[in-house]
Amino acid sequence: MEQKQLKDIPLSVLDLAIINQGHTASDTFKNSLDLAQHVENWGYQRYWLAEHHNMENVGSSATAVLIGHIAGGTSSIRVGSGGIMLPNHAPLVVAEQFGTLASLFPNRIDLGLGRAPGTDQLTAMALRRDRLGAGNDFYKNIAELRTYLDADNRTGAVRAIPGEGLDIPIWILGSSTDSAYLAAALGLPYSFASHFAPTYLHAAIKLYRDNFRPSPQLQKPYVMPAVNVIAADTDKEAERIASSFYRMALGIITGKRQPLQPPIESMEGIWTEYEEAAVKNMMAYSFIGSPETVQAGLQDFLDDTQADELMIVSHIYHHEDRLRSYETLNGLRK
To answer: With 70 as the cut, is the pLDDT of residue 62 above it?
Structure first.
């Protein structure tokens, strides 16, 4: 098999609408739109937003609303969900929301679906109310959602208007082998959350490819793993910028989440040896450094996974540094 090269691989963006210390959600949304406009000009393939709830540092809870904000301020880049946590929602509502988005922005909307709640269990209860078992009905909920989007449902007793008959690509998202089996069985593209859940990446990709069944949407397997990237002029500068990312990850491990902190010169004294190891294990697929360092790391990742597309996550405090990182990464493909 011919090895894939970074210069030939589509790049996309996953945005959690991270809220920075000293800033508001409104600031975050303005920066997200500005980033989307820049990456569109740089030739990125898609811009996705991820559903999370009850997190002080994440502003993407109303995911469909933000997708409309980004799509409305851009003209060609695909915009979508990475993902909508389907157990939190009635499938009909998702069909209507994304049918509305696809009607407003034809041929530009992606619908990525996940089975986790995107939050803690108490918040999941508040979201789901009497639907607490919905996470166990992921396959059934997807089937119901696809029925509402199918043109053949025009004689159905319950219809999604708008939504019915629209070509809205569905993706399966996951961080385990369960999602790989499901994506393969349905013949849908598959995005793996290796940016924070690296353990099952290779096993999931293999299971997906080995068990893939062609569908009207997709004739052969298509894999898009997510990875963390922070690129700067030098390795030292990238590591300094990455201190914000490290502290955010540390907050996940310790349960002490807070808005994204400004970068600091060193993590020494901020984390223990055990905490550092835990962060770097969780964020194993992180490529931080100079253009040369990032390019070498991403090419090794491509050699290992033969990914069809890469989804890039960059938790960077200063907006100009974030823009520069994405611009630098795009330059590695030339």
So the answer is: yes
Burial 194-212 (b: 16+ CB within 10 A, else e): bbbbbebbeebbebbbeeb
In terms of Cα–Cα distance, which of 16, 14, 15 is closest to 257?
16
**What does DSSP assign to residue 165?**
T
Distance of CA 141 to the CA centre of its chain: 21
In whole angstroms, give the CA distance from residue 160 to residue 101.
13
Task: Tokens for 178, please give them.
Answer: 């369960």
List the beta bridge partners of residue 162: none
Closest CA to 139 of 175, 178, 98, 169: 178
Tokens of 325: 């990182």
> pTM of the predicted model, to two decimals?
0.94
Strands (E), the chain: 11-15, 46-49, 78-85, 109-114, 170-174, 190-192, 223-231, 286-289, 310-313
Amino acid (1-letter code) at residue 99: G
- How is residue 277 written in tokens? 């190891």
Tell me which of 116 and 328 has the higher pLDDT: 328
Place of tokens 């901020």: 270
Judged by average pLDDT, the poorest of 53-57, 58-62, 158-162, 327-331 is 53-57
Q: How far apart are CA 192 and CA 198, in angstroms?
A: 9
The H or E element spanning position 274 is helix 273-282
pLDDT at 128: 64
CA distance 83 to 65: 13
The 3-state DSSP class for residue 229 equals: strand
